[in-house]
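Ticket #4471: structure export looks truncated?
Reporter: QA, pipeline team
Priority: medium

Steps to reproduce: submit the single chain below to the structure queue and open the exported record.
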Amino acid sequence: RWWNVTAHELIPLGEETAALARIADYQGRDRGASLTAFANELGGRVAVMSYFPWTMNMSLAKREQLVWLCDWLSRGTMPVIIETFVRLTPWVRRHPDGRLVIGLLNLSGDTYESVEIAVRTDAKHFQQLSAGGTLKPLRVQRDGDAVRLLVSGFKPYSAEVILCSA
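Actual output as written to the record:
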């Protein structure tokens, strides 16, 4: 028992399993792997996490690791990546004709003047739809298979919507 919670060490069973994170107790003792990743012979990808004190993991480094791990698991198909270290939740809906609607929910009491997001899409036009119903065009910077957008105006507990079209 560590941190007054029962936890178990992940023991990689093969050399092809990568230990991406290890956990240490308050005395600095290594308690073993806490995040592993594996790609099997059929092409499947798996990540296993044994973290238990979630309140101890809210750092920029851990957030970045989890975002890029999810992108690896999805083979680089995550449609939206929030690049700025903020408490936003993305909701994405792709229409069969290629249009994309992205909802960005601010689930905190924080105000964010601007947030950078990367969107994987072939769309060329991007507009921000505010809660008041106004549309504002967004400037786009193409970056490989994605575009980078700077979205502004996040009030506490609010939502902003991005409309993407050809």
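Status: closed, not a bug. The export was complete when the record was re-opened. Leaving a note from the reviewer for reference: The chain has one helix and twelve strands.
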